[in-house]
Amino acid sequence: METCRVLSIQSHVVRGYVGNRSAVFPLQLLGFEVDFINSVQFSNHTGYPHWKGQVLNCAEIEELYETLKKNNVIHYDYVLTGYCRDRDMLRKMVEIIKELKQRNPKLIFVCDPVMGDTWDGEGKMYVPKELLPVYKNEVIPIADILTPNQFEAELLTDSKITNESEALTSISKLHELGPSTVVISSSSLGGVNSLIGYGSKRNNNNGIKYQQIRLVMNLIDAAFVGSGDLFAALLLAWTHLHPDNLKIALEKVISTMQHILKRTKAAADTQVGPGKKATFSDLELRLIQSKKDIEEPELCVEAVNL
Amino acid sequence: METCRVLSIQSHVVRGYVGNRSAVFPLQLLGFEVDFINSVQFSNHTGYPHWKGQVLNCAEIEELYETLKKNNVIHYDYVLTGYCRDRDMLRKMVEIIKELKQRNPKLIFVCDPVMGDTWDGEGKMYVPKELLPVYKNEVIPIADILTPNQFEAELLTDSKITNESEALTSISKLHELGPSTVVISSSSLGGVNSLIGYGSRRNNNNGIKYQQIRLVMNLIDAAFVGSGDLFAALLLAWTHLHPDNLKIALEKVISTMQHILKRTKAAADSTLIFLFVV
């Protein structure tokens, strides 16, 4: 693969796998050159009993970017962003991405619009509400690949998803906001033991307007943190490696996720001992141990073209 | 390999490969769990025309460490440190490592005492001079694996190295400061086209006191930055994977370095040719 440069702007944790810690290693394994700005440096993610660290402000991010620009080393093929809590930071990233797209019109912006999730049937935002309009009006219009979860898709389209038809309508609305590829990584539309994901890509040629895909995957019963960040990074990689086949790209992404999550759950259960509940520390993604699964995922899911 | 945890405290650059950017990926590839504290975040290394970024202070590093401690997740098998410009920061790292060694007496501290290098026959320090006594008196006594270059070995032992005998004497003196494994990754003792490295390990058993090794490697004609950081990380990995065989460990480390440096030089030269053609 000709060397592909990614700029990732996400969190860093000293220990554990969220943000850049989830995204960078898999991308590097798959042969991508990844430049990464750590928007924060925390000890660990915020699910632990204690967490502390430093947060970058807009001026500091701008300084890093402007210096790379002065050195004339800002040709990127992809930009990847994820969890962000600050409206000004979000806007700063939009500014940067617009400039990078001017320099390279083929640049692909992979955007994970992290805003919230659903627990026990109830959706909750875990970023300030003021970010929603910024995502809708400023970020998503310039995104090329969008990876909302079900709750975020509902927020962005202001409509509930209770069946497949509504999921696909929601996806159409998201396409209209900008992105040519939209993936709802998982929804509650599956049964008790499964999740259903949807992928959709806008075609610019032949009669068919969208390639749409449904994927059924096993639910692995544990609270994983950082898996969304991993998902977005893997999606970047496999859509790059299979640019005309969203179906196979998604099958590889989800298969990789399944192997990693299963391994993580098994390792966590072993670590914590029988009868005890695994902590967030035990459940840190076993990325290092899953090198082979990341490089050459054995397919364990089959997507269906809709 | 049973999962081995490393704590690395080094620089981060957004673009390029120095500090943690050099050390972490190879260690991860070789199956190590690496927790890493970025002591700075710069746009790129300081050899570029422009460089800017943020530097962590001691209080911030302490905060990160103390929080990991509160979460009871500070069992490490290795600590790896490299380029540091600040005396207080160096002392803070010594404090942390001592505590980690108390928690795990088997912890191995891999220390790259980055202080300077030799250009055109002249050695120059590129950290404040005040760091030398801190390295000598406080850091190196608790180090287990030490990776000075020739200039740093000369600084630490206050004696020149002009032949193999003097190199080995210097290494003995470094052993006496603390570390059981000392590797001078390259010296000017080779010919025009080669470098010679020395590795030495103190044995605690049988009659032979030290396992000592000489390695001759091709000189690759370019100025690489970050290769020392890569070297220390690879040495950590291969001495872990070959705990009783420093010879094979060093052969793997240096072979890896040779392949990477050759590939890097070839790729860099191709880019230049492309620019000329265009």
TrEMBL record, chain B:
Record carries keyword Protein transport: no
Residues making up the signal peptide according to the UniProt record = none
Gene3D superfamilies the UniProt entry points to: 3.40.1190.20
EC nos: 2.7.1.35
What pathway, per the record?
Cofactor metabolism; pyridoxal 5'-phosphate salvage; pyridoxal 5'-phosphate from pyridoxal: step 1/1; Cofactor metabolism; pyridoxal 5'-phosphate salvage; pyridoxamine 5'-phosphate from pyridoxamine: step 1/1; Cofactor metabolism; pyridoxal 5'-phosphate salvage; pyridoxine 5'-phosphate from pyridoxine: step 1/1
Q: Note the CDD domains from the entry.
A: pyridoxal_pyridoxamine_kinase
Reactions it catalyzes: pyridoxamine + ATP = pyridoxamine 5'-phosphate + ADP + H(+); pyridoxal + ATP = pyridoxal 5'-phosphate + ADP + H(+); pyridoxine + ATP = pyridoxine 5'-phosphate + ADP + H(+)
Task: Report what the protein is called.
Answer: Pyridoxal kinase
